[in-house]
Amino acid sequence: MGRTTEPDFDFVLSQRQAFDETKTGVKGLIDAGVKSVPTLFRHQPEKYEKASNLGDTRHVIPVIDLADIGKDPSKRQGLVGIVKEASQTWGFFQVVNHQIPLSVLEEMKNGVKRFHELDTQVKKEFYSRDRSKCFLYNSNFDLYGSQPALNWRDSFRCRLYPDIKPEEIPLVCRDILLDYKEHMMKLGSLLLELFSEALDLNPNYLKDMGCSEGLFCHCHYYPACPEPNLTMGITNHSDNDFFTLLLQDHIGGLQVRYQDNWIDIIPVPGAFVVNIGDFLQFISNDIFKSAEHRVVANNVGPRISVACFFYPSEEASLQIRGPIKELLSEDNPPKYREITFADYEAYHLVKGLDGTSTLAHYRI
């Protein structure tokens, strides 16, 4: 949020505070009958060029079929090669035949929708910006951060592992979140093996580093927007975790930056989108790429998405880390200074979604 003059800054801050204090988010604006995008949510359209791959089959992120991966060593080796190429070039891929029932995926999306469409007074009880809570709901986690305009979405955030507190999770989505956690931990463990092998490391290397000891689920609700060309579902950013597993519905809107172009990630029924996070790029010394991505606003909706972020545990986040020693050489010296994940995350949260890379701050 650029500080131009003191009155301008104070006026914008007061508007944001007023929006925050409603505790009803973007959905509250729609429920109140807004017909245009409020000033707080208006972005500069010229900054957000359109996707460039419409009808272009050459620019489609890889889709990886996990069927029989545990039965056929040659197939697994082939998939490791695809994961490596996708992680080095796109930073994104999709996985299918992951053994998670479609009924679970549908119920997860339905559970997110049920929560966000709860009675307003009931939902307000969960509204918070206290990130120590197991479950919290709000709109724009960096509402008071540095972004020039707010994003057109509401979210709830739930810690799924470790130290999950079922009693703090709303009943409308409690059972499915507890079930979903088991599936995410299993699939996340498999993906970490593939990432490790793609880096020519022992299959358990990244797991033993603690790359899946913390799991947070962010469940987003993007209401239909009356003027989608004036705002964004979420502005361009990269994730600050090791990697992310995303379940998106059929509406679409997710885009990734690839070769300086924005590319639509077309929803594949039953698939998960997998993307490399900043900290996996960091420890791989830039072998893997944490790609910028964004979500454009739609005039249809609500769009539902469920993002599971894999982090180190609270204890592991205090350990000093640098690029993995086994990946370094004279020709490939460390590109980042050593830091703790806790310090990195704190800087990321203060910086907010301002369109710049958090990693750049730590580059040597």
UniProtKB/TrEMBL annotation:
InterPro entries xref list: DIOX_N, IPNS-like_FE2OG_OXY, IPNS-like_sf, Oxoglu/Fe-dep_dioxygenase_dom
Q: What's the protein called, per UniProt? A: Fe2OG dioxygenase domain-containing protein
> Any idea which UniProt keywords this protein has?
Iron, Metal-binding, Oxidoreductase
What the entry lists under Gene3D superfamilies is as follows: B-lactam Antibiotic, Isopenicillin N Synthase, Chain
Name the cofactor(s) required for activity, per the record: Fe cation
Fe2OG dioxygenase domain sequence ranges: 211-312
Pfam families per record? 2OG-FeII_Oxy, DIOX_N
Q: Family, per the entry?
A: Belongs to the iron/ascorbate-dependent oxidoreductase family.
Q: What is the lineage of its organism?
A: Eukaryota, Viridiplantae, Streptophyta, Embryophyta, Tracheophyta
Q: Name one GO molecular function term.
A: metal ion binding
